[in-house]
Amino acid sequence: MVVLQASEHSGCDDAAAGWPPGGRSGDSRHRHPADQAGRRLGCGAGQESGRTGAHSAGRSASDWAECGSFMPSVVTRARCRHALPVIRAVPRAPIPASGRLSCMSPADLQLSPPGLLLDALSPQREDGGLVQSAPEGLISPVRDRFDPVVSDVVKWCRGRHLTPLPETAVPGTNDRERSILAALGGVSEALAQRAEIGLSRTKMPAEVQHWLSSAPAPPDELIDRLLGALTGAAHDPLALVYERIVASPRRRRLGTFFTPEPVLDYIKGILDLRLAEAPRTVADPGAGVGAFTTSALSWWPGSAVHAIDVNLVTLGLLAARPDLHRAGATAKLHVRQEDFLCWLGEKWPRLRGPRLIMGNPPYTRHQQLTQGQKKQAQAASGRISPGLRAGLSTYFLAASLMALRPRDSLCLLLPANWLEADYARAVRNHLWHTTRRRVELHLFPNHLEVFPGTQVAAMVIFVGPISTDLQDMALYRVAENGQSGFSGILQNQVRREEVPPPAAFTEGALNPSARRARKRETTVPLAQLVHIRRGVATGANRFFLRTVDEKNQLPDGTCVRAVSRIRDLPGDVLSLIEHEKLGEDGLRCWLLKLDSSAAQIPEIKKLLDEGESEGIHERHLCRVRSPWYALERITVPDLLIGPMGKSRFRVVVNDVGAIPTNTLYGLRLRNPSSPGAVNHLAQWLSSEEGQAALRSVARQHGDGLLKLEPGPLSVVPVPAGIVELQCNAKISTRLS
User: Fold this and answer.
1) Which residue has the higher pLDDT, 581 or 234?
2) Which pLDDT band, with edges at 50, 70 and 90, does 281 fall under?
3) N or C: where does the chain have the smaller number of CB atoms within 10 Å of the terminal CB?
4) Which UniProt keywords apply (predicted)?
5) Closest CA to 557 of 349, 292, 336, 735
6) Phi then psi for 264, rounded to 5 degrees?
7) Strand-pair partners of 220
8) Is the peptide bond prior to 627 cis by the omega test (within 30 degrees of 0)?
9) Is 387 exposed, middle or buried (0-12, 13-18, 19+ CB in 10 A)?
10) Could you read off the pLDDT of 202-261 as tens digits, one per residue?
């Protein structure tokens, strides 16, 4: 088991450590408070300015010994499937002949130089998890959102009542928000003037220049306080101001979610270890207020950094911020108010290499993209274009991969959905077959809201330059390492040559031993045993689902038993008694079953008239039905399963024959003649083995939530003995 984690500094000063004067970053916004005391190294702390793995490797053994640290080591990889990562800590004990370090304890390893520490943990847990429990969470921006400085800046902007910015300046926002954002231009301009280091007007997009110069100036006292916050806050106050002004739902149009500091530190550690040379050009797609841009200027002072975004306001905040202008950083900064996908095709090819695409692309869901935007994004992605259900960040990933030259690299913070979604299959296949580039997937915990309010898990992908040797794909599970940062625990490391790509880039799918074990088992896909389908999509559950009292006022035969929420069912069997209990509790558990002939019945006609007066017939699903009130007829399922869960998925035997709504999945045996087959399958799906199989195909969302989709659910491997499969048996059906 190999861990990438932060370590404690020995307390040496810069001179003793061999750093040149001024070698450390002066930007305290990118440094942990403990690092300012000279006691931290690694991904959870501040980083050494511009020191990549190549720079660190240039120091002698005596340099490291003088400061109490130890010399890094580069290991020549053996051609075997179980080889360890290329860079590791130097062991005090000999490396076993097997080449594995899993048997070694932490005491057998010395500390690594700045960056991530590759450490070996004794195998105390089979799943490779951290033994210690993590204290208070690292990412907690809510604590600082109500900082007095942030609140006072927002209050001042709200009190200006300016003409709103054009809607195209910040798409998705309303007039009131754009009026407040217009005033924010005065704050940004004042920051630059006060520090006397404003970015040259000629380097700013014209729209940004106009925004900065059009707003009134805020009070000097407010700017003084904001300048202080910019140099000492744990979270970027400019990002917090923007979040306070623009509500989260309206930030989603542009996918504006800012990157927490500990995540930046973790990414810095990856790049320190994996980049053999400092990039000459860095591109920050969807730059926002500049978390990655300012970091890149600090980490690689000699690199040209291009910040690309369509959001006028966030680019303006980035371009005028004081912490960009230390040591002449702005000479290397290029601010571009452009669509990144267009910029990538037009400007990127002319830039010098080696190049790095690094950032947090916009998290914009596919529903918020127009058909024209999707077609443009697909064209930019070329032959690995994602499907139309992909979000904008997946298009950014695909287009960036296609734009890499041999010496280029990529490191992006992304939502984790693409790792298993069908729409990204072409992207995953491309990564799988790119065997001469190292590919790393770092998965953050589901409960950690890196993208607040989205309920989407986060991950980091690193793709290295082309090597002369075959390279591995590695999957790391990121864990909170107390208050010191994150630890990346190596879960799987696989060779990709001559092996077909897995269906998903998940821990189970990338585990070679697990795949071999599954092949040895006698299993059948769940879809060979059952029909799987979602329940009825009504388009208006409150209208189509009736209470027992409402049902009793309608003619017989116009309602059927139904269920819409798995949590309403207390047991593992939905019997007649249990369904009657739902009605007694006032739940809506009867579904309208109407056709055009029923519409002539007075009671039904009155009900439909009431629905039309409420606009039910104009809702999307109702509008496309003819007539609008005639729901689809589905076969009664034998089993009901809830598609969402954190640790378990409820499976309920549908004894009463209720029709589920589309919030549930229904499973119906293909051969229902086998005695007890339904109960046997339900018992297995509810067992630890069955639940593990379901979790292995579930999609990970934020806040620890797991979701089953029909496609992955259909391939869940079920022991063949659970249900006897009779392929030629007729399927008996019960129509509701």
Assistant:
1) 581
2) very high
3) C
4) Methyltransferase, S-adenosyl-L-methionine, Transferase
5) 735
6) -60, -45
7) none
8) yes
9) middle
10) 567 788 888 888 889 899 888 888 888 877 555 678 888 888 888 776 666 555 566 777
Domain ranges within the chain, ordered by starting residue: 528-592+634-719, 594-630
| pLDDT for residue 160 | 86
Q: Under 8 Å CB-to-CB from 413, ≥6 apart: which residues?
A: 259, 263, 267, 359, 360, 361, 450, 458, 459, 460
Q: Is the dihedral of CA 79, 84, 88, 92 positive or negative?
A: negative
pLDDT at res. 203: 67
For residue 419, give every residue at least 6 positions away whose Cβ sits within 8 Å of its Cβ, in sequence order, or none: 428, 441, 443, 459, 504, 505, 506
Read off the pTM: 0.60
User: Whole-angstrom Cα distance, residue 457 to residue 445?
Assistant: 7
DSSP state of 384: G
Phi, psi of 497 (to 5 degrees): -65, 140
At position 152, the amino acid (one-letter code) is D
The C-alpha atoms of residue 100 and residue 82 are separated, in whole angstroms, by: 8
Cβ neighbours for 654, distance < 8 A, ≥ 6 positions apart: 574, 636, 637, 638, 639, 640, 666
Residue 3: phi and psi, rounded to 5, are: -120, 135
Q: Residue 483 pLDDT > 60, yes or no?
A: no
Number of other residues whose CB lies within 10 A of the CB of residue 34: 16
Radius of gyration of the chain (CA): 29
Q: Which two tokens mark 158?
A: 């709200």
Distance of CA 315 to the CA centre of its chain: 23
Q: List the structure tokens of 62.
A: 């005596």
In whole angstroms, what separates CA 734 from the centre of its chain? Answer: 42
Strand partners, 533: 666
Determine the Cα–Cα distance for residues 460 and 443; give it in Å rounded to an integer.
7
Q: Please name the amino acid found at residue 310.
A: V
Between 104 and 446, name the one with better pLDDT.
446
For 528-592+634-719, give the CATH class. Answer: alpha beta
